[in-house]
Amino acid sequence: MARVFARIKDLRDGTAKMPPEDRGWFRIYAKREDIEILLKSQNMRDNDESWNYYDHIFAGHESDYALFPNKTNPEYYGIYVGLAQLSLLDTIVRKIIKGKNRSSNFRKTLSALLSSPRTLKDQSSVNEFLDRLIIEYTPEYKISKRDLFETDVREINRYITPLNTTENDISEVQDFISELSRIC
Q1: pTM, entire model
Q2: Under 8 Å between Cβ of 117 and 46
Q3: What is the rounded distance in angstroms from the CA atom of residue 124 to the CA atom of residue 86?
């Protein structure tokens, strides 16, 4: 099936076509300045203001290598690749877009990065940030769960996707992932 792009805000408002109940994979994109907000989180490195992961991860890289540009919306770059083993609708809409901060790894990570030290961000603040992002999803109802998982891992390791905390073998993000594990 074809890839579908939508603004998360439009999915939340019901003005975009909803993902199907099929399994599949998805990629979440953010503008560079939003990526910078996440990677310069005050919760990382014990609040050492002289250190930030944005500079550490992307130092010396051309943006085309380091970040996966969205061809439809070139000002957006991939930050997360996800897998919906049962239902894209359930994973994307019910868990990520309309869920609680602990309902998905992605929301939990956003909450930890956007919050004050040791205090999870409230639902509305995470939702406001989510509404600035776009999502691409691809239903894959004819593919096995194993093949879907392998596709997910391949996509995660194709470019730097800093918010993928599992299955991510990109060396530039390993310190960041370790630090995320500490605060999540």
Answers
A1: 0.83
A2: no
A3: 27
